[in-house]
UniProtKB/TrEMBL annotation:
The chain crosses the membrane at residues 21-40, 46-67. The gene is LOC107682436. Keywords: Membrane, Transmembrane, Transmembrane helix. This is Proteolipid protein 2-like. It comes from Sinocyclocheilus anshuiensis. It comes from the Eukaryota.
Length: 107
């Protein structure tokens, strides 16, 4: 609507979304476990803890899917193994351990 993701280019929105989901999952799981464990005899607290556990699991699943998006959006380029055409046949001085070899080939 306001397209803030296009206005604030400094923020990596995918990583900030991952951090939000991880923190949310951790907080929901911790507080829900506390409610379930200490809620003996209080049905409302146990029910809230169970719903909190479900919300924490959903946050964890959201974190997992965001992580997969980040992993698939990485762009890896393979290192060139052959000699590029621009350097073929040229000789340049190469400095090896303080000794200059004026006629050493690049490729």
């Amino acid at each position: 609507m306001m397209e803030l993701d296009k206005q604030f280019l400094v923020v990596n929105w995918l990583w900030s979304d991952l951090i939000r989901a991880v923190i949310g999952a951790a907080l929901y799981l911790i507080t829900s476990l506390i409610c379930v464990i200490s809620g003996a005899g209080d049905g409302a607290r146990i029910a809230g803890g169970v719903f909190g556990l479900l919300a924490g699991i959903l946050f964890a699943y959201d974190s997992y899917t965001i992580f997969l998006d980040i992993k698939s959006s990485r762009q890896h380029t393979d290192a060139p193994t052959g000699c590029p055409q621009i350097f073929s046949g040229f000789t340049v001085p190469v400095l090896l351990k303080g000794i200059v070899h004026p006629k050493m080939n690049i490729c």
